[in-house]
């Protein structure tokens, strides 16, 4: 199946399965059933089997899944069987945190470029990687053949920066700028809004409090 045609909801769940498998392997668990995966993830066993069926047959009926084999297959399906070269554009507080985490804690990616336009940040280093001026983005993206970018610039600057990234060869963007981005059909954008996530969480906290008072 084409990557573009795989439902986004399915793709979002694959890394969750991968994280569970990583934990199981560390605990020396060799075989895992869809029922146990359901307990670990919160997704139904039927949903898990359906998700995996998009990519082939991985388990044995009545036995379950070999954890190491399923993990290796998921790594290849997602594209994590090799380090993905990424760039980070915007070196404010969030950019700094994402840069440090992905350089030191994320074994699946290699940060090959960090960009900003603030003179105070240019040529500073994080874990040995130098922050470059945004004007150097095309050169570095093409040199390393990077395809993935994390965007953390202010909303009013985002579209201009995205246009530059797309022209340079970036085809997948994780967008933390609070604005809608306009990109060609071949470019995929995933919008991450921490404010909305927090406000949604507060809704449930308030709901619980209101229920308490109603009693």
Summarize this structure briefly.
By secondary structure, the protein is of the alpha/beta class. Helix content is 48%, strand content 19%.
Q: From the alpha-carbon coordinates, what is the Rg to the nearest angstrom?
A: 20 Å
- Structural class by sheet pairing and helices: alpha/beta
How many strands, what sense, and barrel or not for the largest sheet?
A: 7 strands, mixed
Q: Determine the CATH topology of the largest domain.
A: Rossmann fold
Give the low-pLDDT segments.
Answer: none
CATH class of the largest domain: Alpha Beta
| Helix amount | 40-55%
Mean pLDDT: 90
CATH superfamily of the largest domain: NAD(P)-binding Rossmann-like Domain
Order of helices and strands: HEHHEEHEHEEEHEHEEH
Strand element count: 10
- What is the percentage of strand-forming residues? 15-25%
Beginning-to-end CA distance, first to last residue: 51 Å
Which CATH architecture of the largest domain? 3-Layer(aba) Sandwich
Number of helices: 8
**Domains counted in the coordinates: how many?**
2
Brief descriptors of the model:
215 residues, alpha/beta, Rossmann fold, 10 strands, seven-stranded mixed beta sheet, globular, Arc Repressor Mutant, subunit A, three-stranded antiparallel beta sheet, 8 helices
Would you write up a description of this structure?
The protein has 215 residues and is α/β, with parallel strands linked by helices. The protein folds into two domains: 8-78, Arc Repressor Mutant, subunit A, CATH 1.10.10.10; 84-195, NAD(P)-binding Rossmann-like Domain (Rossmann fold), CATH 3.40.50.720. The chain has helices at 8-26, 34-41, 45-53, 67-78, 93-104, 137-144, 155-168, 194-214, and strands spanning 31-32, 59-60, 64-66, 84-89, 109-116, 125-126, 129-133, 148-151, 172-175, 188-191. Helix 1 (8-26) runs antiparallel to helix 4, helix 2 (34-41) packs across helix 3 and helix 6 (137-144) packs across helix 7 (155-168). The chain is globular and about 60 Å long. The N and C termini lie far apart (51 Å). The mean pLDDT is 90.
């Amino acid at each position: 199946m084409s990557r573009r045609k795989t439902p986004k909801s399915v793709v979002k769940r694959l890394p969750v399965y991968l994280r569970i498998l990583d934990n199981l392997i560390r605990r020396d668990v060799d075989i895992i059933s869809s029922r146990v995966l359901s307990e670990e993830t919160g997704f139904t066993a039927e949903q898990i089997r359906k998700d995996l069926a998009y990519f082939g047959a991985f388990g044995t009926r009545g036995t379950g899944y070999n954890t190491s084999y399923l993990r290796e297959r998921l790594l290849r399906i997602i594209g994590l069987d090799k380090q993905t070269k990424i760039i980070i554009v915007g070196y404010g507080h969030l950019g700094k945190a994402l840069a440090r985490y992905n350089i030191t804690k994320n074994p699946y990616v290699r940060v090959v470029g960090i960009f900003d336009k603030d003179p105070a940040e240019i040529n500073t280093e994080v874990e040995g990687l130098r922050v470059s001026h945004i004007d150097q983005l095309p050169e570095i993206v093409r040199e390393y053949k990077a395809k993935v970018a994390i965007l953390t610039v202010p909303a009013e600057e985002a579209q201009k920066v995205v246009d530059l990234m797309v022209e340079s060869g970036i085809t997948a963007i994780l967008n933390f700028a609070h604005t809608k981005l306009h990109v060609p059909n071949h470019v995929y954008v995933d919008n991450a809004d921490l404010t909305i996530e927090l406000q949604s969480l507060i809704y449930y906290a308030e709901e619980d409090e209101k229920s308490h008072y109603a009693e």
